[in-house]
Amino acid sequence: MSDRGAQAEDRDQDATADLATESATAERSPSSAKTANTALLRVTFYAVLVGLILGFAIHFAKPGDDVLKVMLLPGNILLRMLKALVVPLVFTSVITAITSMGNVGSVGTVGRKAVAFYLGTTLLASILGLILVVSIQPGSSTSNDSKPIGDRYCHGDKVDQDKNTIDAITDIFYEMFPENIFDAASDYADCHINILGLITCSVAIGCSIASLKEKGEPLLNVIVSLNDVVMKIVHVVIWYAPVGICFLLMYRISKEEDLTTLLSNLALYMVTVVLGLAIHAFVILPGLYTLLTKRPPFEVLRAAKPALVTAFGIDSSSATLPVTLDCAKDGLGLDETISLFVLPLGATLNMNGTALYEAVAAIFVAQTLGISLSFGKLLLVAFTASLAAVGAAGIPEAGLITLVMVVQAAGLPADGIGLILSVDWLLDRIRTTVNVLGDLTGAAIVHHRTPRTTPREEIEGIELQ
């Protein structure tokens, strides 16, 4: 009995030490992250500005096709790098996210409530995005003649329009369970990667590793190391992104015949995304908070101001975590033990704004290419956007890669996102702010719905990995 007590005490001390180390590391991260992200923002802004100026200048010069192809080269290199990172990022990040939660059955009511809220609101956000983009139609008036070089209809797009709703929905389930995982990770159906099948397999592997505990640790260590390597490559690609964005914008403007329509559609796309994020932040999240806790709807929003400002400036939900924890403790008075589990989980799992943005962006791409997606494909976009958002890293512009996942899952060419990239640097900050607000709202709801009679051991026994 004394041995078990000593072991439990050692585990508590180790957990406390690990938590202290994580907190100390997190406290140092916002300033360095803010410096790096401010530099990236400045470079991206100047790249967009240069792309606009040179694009308009070249547009009136009427360049030939050979010049356009050379101009498109740096942009296509960016798109190819983003597509190349899809499979390793999905595989490693999803498994890492699943295993970081540990065995959901062992974290008690706190963990189950947090996971249910974050996944539910992420799916709700993607559905809201679909409703808005289908209703507003921001890309419907774009001429099909303005498609970038290399754009094509994917094999099966026209056939998909002839399928009824039942066939389209059953196809989603077929894609979730691929016959061959290696086929799912390759050019599925001669057009796009089977993202849904890849995510399903990654979730299964992650849950299996988590259930094996000590036996699964060797494989988990390899996957975590691989995930770190992928994240390092992602950082390099993100710093190259301003160059690719500049040339993609130059190309699109220089060959576009109707610049007024192009820019108005892009502006309407931004309005659609911001409107969706505003509805989610000021209506849905406060409404759920009041419905589930019977407290004032904007209580979390008022207390979250420092975290929201930091998230917008840093453009990273993970780096904002120390400020978010302070808001939870000082502004909302949440139980610190619950906050220390739920908020880091939210920084990994909760991507409301990202899911909404990716759903809108994918349908916008389809509209600009003149492709009408079936109801089943719309459901696939909503579902894939939710799952892909969960796998998105909490770093600036990581949504670019998951956006490629969603676009390819819908059977659309990834080349179509070129125009979107020119405004992603701004929208990314807004959706990151909504993500952080969702993190705090989830933590507050879990706090108020956790009975004070819940054994302290159940809360303190949650495994932070």
Question: Can you tell me about this structure?
Answer:
With 465 residues, the protein is mostly helical. 76% of the residues lie in helices and 0% in strands. It is built from 19 helices and no strands. Helix 2 runs antiparallel to helix 9 and helix 6 (165-176) packs across helix 8. It is globular and about 70 Å long.
Give the key terms.
465 residues; 76% helix; mainly alpha; disordered N terminus
In short:
With 465 residues, this protein is mainly alpha-helical. The protein has helices at 2-61, 65-84, 86-100, 108-136, 157-160, 165-176, 181-184, 195-212, 217-255, 259-293, 299-303, 305-314, 321-331, 336-349, 352-368, 375-390, 399-409, 421-448, 456-460.
- Assembly status: single chain
Unreliable stretches covering 5 or more consecutive residues = 1-29, 142-162, 460-465
* Helix fraction by DSSP (H/I, runs of at least 4): over 70%
Global shape: globular
Write the element-wise H/E pattern from the N-terminal end onward: HHHHHHHHHHHHHHHHHHH
> Biggest sheet, in brief?
none
Mean pLDDT: 79
Number of strands: 0
What percentage of the residues does DSSP assign to strands (E)? under 5%
Write the layout of secondary structure elements.
Elements: H1 2-61, H2 65-84, H3 86-100, H4 108-136, H5 157-160, H6 165-176, H7 181-184, H8 195-212, H9 217-255, H10 259-293, H11 299-303, H12 305-314, H13 321-331, H14 336-349, H15 352-368, H16 375-390, H17 399-409, H18 421-448, H19 456-460
Helix pairs in contact: 1-9, 2-9, 3-8, 3-9, 4-10, 4-14, 4-15, 4-16, 4-18, 6-8, 6-16, 10-15, 10-18, 12-13, 12-18, 13-14, 13-18, 14-18, 15-16, 15-17, 15-18, 16-17
